[in-house]
Specification:
Blueprint (H helix, E strand, L loop, with lengths): L1 E3 L2 E3 L11 H18 L6 H18 L15 H16 L5 H19 L5 H8 L17 H31 L3 H4 L4 H4 L6 H4 L9 H6 L3 H10 L5 H14 L5 H5 L6 E3 L3 E8 L4 E8 L9 H11 L1 H6 L9 E6 L4 E6 L9 H6 L18 H15 L3 H5 L5 H7 L4 H21 L5 E3 L1 H5 L4 H6 L4 H8 L9 E2 L27 E4 L3 H17 L2 H21 L4 H11 L7 H7 L2
Parallel strand pairs: 8-10
Antiparallel strand pairs: 1-2, 3-4, 4-5, 6-7, 9-10
């Protein structure tokens, strides 16, 4: 049994419902054991679901022989059954679905667990359980953020819907004040019907055409009337979508999951803002964020939005006191009972998703709201994070924010259009600064001069101090592609700090010193830059790599007699290029 967002789910599996009764029972026992051992948050719902799926397939595949199937017996070739099941799942769910991989992985984990403690499990089945599914999980395309124009359109549309909702609820409350007990004054006045909806079925005229005009306008049919009357007092789930969008755009470090699971005790007014305790189920993380009030106490900042949301749902909480204190609490018609009920919004039920809400909006002048696909709420979070990064300056650490490591950010956020554009502009500015300050080319020292660098006269002739020459020969000033006269005297870094642009800018730096023994590295860098030409759009490649490519080409032309030897060295020693992770992060995305 598990509870998720106010709903309790019971997970059961009856082995006798399958002809492979023993196999189903064994896998079910392993599922229960695994869920308890790993303390999984869904209490085994997904694991028992996978067992049910596999047991049903085994029944169909094995026919009358299914009764003899079990994990500790090799009379049935279970690895072959698993193989056929994987193929059938692939056909059932399609090539782009991750369900086949997930289901098969679960069953293999359960079999492997059984094999660890039961020596009777056949060796062939153990080996199959230790191997991955034959079809890997499909790689999903990372979501891009909404454009700034789309963000503004969404912001304006949601603010309009919030105002309309507040006006509707205010009108409903005024009508409620005018209402009189319908049992005494009749069932044909709309203000009176707002007092109760439970007895409409018995007391309204059977046919809507006999209703007064204002009732017919409110809703055609008893259930439609109940819905319309309830909508004058209580926000529906689709009404709450506007608050959800605005909060996701404003609470930069809050995920849709964390926002959905907020309850009233999680929100504390500190006088200077609101303190929100957030829970992320997948990461099993609880944290508190303080959202300060904007200067002047704007109604559209996070504290203002939360106050307006609580005011909009106050009547719902008062009318349905037994409802759990979820922040997003909606009142909607229960079609089975015909009555209004309060329930937490999930924004996943039919007609209540983000995409359904967008489909009903306009741009303020009557045209449908044009928002790029997919209509995924996670894109709102990415939009908010990139908007913040633009304000902070656009570095990788700014983009990652406080709730991500840089590597996590690279995998989930750095692919975004805004991040690419900002990174490109940042790199272009940095390179322009470099080009303005790097007035000299790198110094090249051939093999004969390199051998004589230990002599003070030779080092001085090359523009090096004796200490610099000695450290270069010892490899202490090796920056990865070239040597450097002094990494703490970089023309690109102020304040005596170590150079932070090496080795990306070494070929454009007057401090760089190239030994001919380093030519293989530079040749491999040139090859890498040409590879990037095929991967990047021409303007972006030129901005990131054009100057380096030109500098390398000039160097190779000037020292052409050394190039064949360097190429042969790469081939003979099977050399590979090792670039720092930071260089790949900034220059290859």
């Amino acid at each position: 049994m598990s509870e998720r967002h106010g709903r309790t789910s019971r997970h059961t599996l009856d082995p006798t419902a399958y002809r492979c009764t023993t196999l189903a029972a064994q896998l079910a026992d392993e599922a229960v054991e695994y869920v308890r051992k790993m303390a999984l948050s869904d209490d085994g719902g997904s694991y028992l679901g996978a067992v049910r799926k596999f047991a049903a397939f085994a029944d169909r595949q094995l026919g009358d022989a299914a009764g003899t199937a079990r994990l500790d017996d090799d009379r049935i070739d279970l690895p072959e059954v698993i193989h056929e099941w994987e193929t059938a799942l692939r056909q059932e769910y399609g090539l782009r679905s991750s369900q086949p991989y997930r289901l098969v992985s679960i069953v293999l984990v359960l079999i492997a667990q059984r094999g660890d403690r039961d020596q009777a499990v056949p060796e062939r089945l153990r080996r199959r359980a230790a191997a991955p599914p034959i079809f890997p999980a499909p790689k999903s395309t990372p979501l891009d953020e909404f454009s700034n124009a789309e963000r503004i359109d969404l912001r304006d549309a949601t603010r309009s819907r919030v105002r309309e909702l507040e006006e509707r609820l205010d009108h409903g409350r005024l009508l409620l004040e005018e209402g009189r007990d319908p049992r005494e004054y009749g069932w044909r006045e709309l203000p009176s019907l707002l007092l109760t909806t439970a007895a409409l079925e018995e007391n309204l005229p059977r046919k809507p055409k006999w209703w007064p005009a204002d009732l017919r306008e409110a809703g055609f049919g008893r259930r439609a009337l109940v819905t319309a009357a309830g909508g004058m007092l209580f926000p529906t789930e689709i009404d709450l979508m506007a608050f959800r969008v605005l909060l996701l755009l404003g609470m930069v470090d809050t995920t849709p999951e964390e926002l959905l699971y907020l309850q009233l005790p999680d929100i504390e007014d500190t006088g200077e803002g609101v303190r929100v305790v957030q829970r992320k189920a997948r990461a099993r993380r609880v944290r508190a964020d303080l959202h300060p009030a904007a200067e002047g106490g704007r109604a559209w900042d996070v504290p203002g939005l939360l106050r307006r949301l609580l005011a909009a749902t106050a009547e719902t909480r008062e009318t349905f006191p037994a409802a759990a204190p979820w922040l997003f609490l909606a009142a909607e018609l229960n079609h089975r009972t015909g009555r209004l009920e309060a329930r937490p919004a999930t924004f996943t039920r039919g007609g209540r998703r983000f995409t359904h809400w967008i489909a009903t909006q306009d741009d303020g002048v009557g045209r449908p709201l044009s928002i790029s696909l997919p209509h995924d709420a996670r894109r709102l979070r990415k939009t908010a994070k990139t908007a913040r990064a633009a304000a902070l300056g656009g570095t990788v650490s700014d983009l990652a924010g406080d709730d991500h490591h840089v590597e996590v950010f690279r995998g989930h956020y750095a692919h975004g259009t805004t991040a690419h554009l900002m990174a490109g502009r940042t790199i272009a500015r940095a390179q322009q600064w470099v080009f303005q300050r790097a007035l000299d080319r790198p110094l090249v020292i051939d093999a004969e001069a390199e051998k004589q660098l230990t002599e003070p006269e030779t080092a001085k002739a090359a523009g090096l101090s004796a200490d610099q020459a000695r450290d270069m020969l010892a490899g202490q000033l090796d920056m990865g592609l070239t040597h450097c006269r002094d990494p703490y005297d970089s023309p690109f870094t102020t304040g005596g700090r170590p150079c932070h642009v090496a080795p990306a800018m070494c070929m454009l730096c007057r401090n760089a010193v190239v030994f001919t023994s380093q030519l293989p590295r530079l040749l491999m860098l040139a090859d890498h830059i040409e590879t990037m030409r095929a991967r990047l759009e021409p303007p972006r490649w030129q901005a990131l790599w054009g100057r380096q490519a030109a500098a390398l080409a000039e160097l190779f032309t000037e020292y052409a007699e050394h190039i064949p030897t360097a190429r042969q060295e790469i081939e003979d020693q099977r050399l590979t290029l090792h670039l720092p992770l930071g260089l790949r992060t900034e220059y290859e995305q």
